[in-house]
Amino acid sequence: MVGDNDIFSLVRNAHKEEDRRNEVAIRNIVITISAIFALSLAVSWLVISYFPEYSCSVATSSSLKTIWPANAPLSERLTELNAPHQKVCDLVSARSIMSAFLATYVVALGIRSLFSKKAINFPGSMLPLVVLALASLATSFLPISSDVSLFRMSIYSSTTANILNSSVNIFCFYFFAAFVMLRAREALRSRDSSSRN
Fold first, then answer.
1. Are 60 and 97 in contact (CB under 8 A)?
2. If we measure between CA atoms, which residue out of 154, 175, 174, 173 comes closest to residue 165?
3. Helix, strand, or coil here: 154?
């Protein structure tokens, strides 16, 4: 017969094992999304530096351009400011490439979580994650500045500086969106299991 202390010990060990598994899963997601982001930056730089014609192809493709929703107003604003055509191409295509890489990962993560029997649990409310994801997306719609700016895209900044400024919004949006999706999936799973009981 198992004593009370043994039962409590088994429960504590099970919780510790689950916490460790969750910690490893979250760490893996953070590392993976960071690596994909770095890869997307590298691919963007290669396309802009060595294949400028492809850069313009990506920038003018309606399906690729709209991968990052803030591309359309940015493109219009740059045209109004008479920015060089290649600068518009490079900036819009880089944002599209980064968004395509990260969106693909987040969608794949979502599909995987649908079929996974093991949920990823992490503490805290989903609201801050939603707010941060939406704030990242909303600030990407700020118009490009016609003045010199260190923390915003500027018509006077180099293409590289503007891409790096944009990349912060893109990375943060997909980073927080990934965890919002996982949190929502876990909430639905918990609701389904409690309704069955």
1. no
2. 154
3. strand
Q: How far apart are CA 78 and CA 144, in angstroms?
A: 8
The pLDDT assigned to 22 comes to 81
Amino acid at 5: N
Residue 117 has pLDDT above 80, yes or no: no
Residue 145 DSSP code: B
Q: Where residue 185 falls among pLDDT bands split at 50, 70, 90?
A: confident
165's tokens: 């400024």
In this prediction, residues 138-164 reach a mean pLDDT of 87
User: Cα–Cα distances in Å, from 76 out to 10, 82, 106, 153?
Assistant: 62, 10, 28, 14
Do the beta carbons of residue 105 and residue 32 sit within 8 Å? Answer: yes
H helices then E strands: how many in the chain?
7, 0
Predicted confidence (pLDDT) at residue 100 exceeds the cutoff of 80 = yes
Residue 48: CB atoms within 10 A of its CB come to 22
What gap in Å lies between CA 86 and CA 96, rounded to an integer?
A: 15
Residue 92's beta-bridge partner residues? Answer: none
Question: Per residue in 158-170, pLDDT tens?
Answer: 999 999 999 999 9
Contacts of 174 (CB under 8 A, 6+ apart): 33, 37, 99, 102, 103, 105, 106
